[in-house]
Amino acid sequence: MNTQKINRRYITGITLDPSVHAYLDDLAKRSRTSRSWVLNSIVYEYAKLVEKQNLTPLAVSLQAPSSKEPVIKL
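The structure corresponding to this sequence follows.
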């Protein structure tokens, strides 16, 4: 039986302001990555920063309704 962790990806549709879209495209181009990679990196880094500073609002909003653990594991 294959015990490798499956890397699941979720396809989402989001609406971006034109300036945010342009900025993400520019970052992706400069880093030679995809816009998805840039967005994921920004969210993970922001989550680490907020969790490290122990800020309550984001920590609370990252919790699943029936869980006491953050949705994003750092």
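The chain is about 50% helix and 0% strand.
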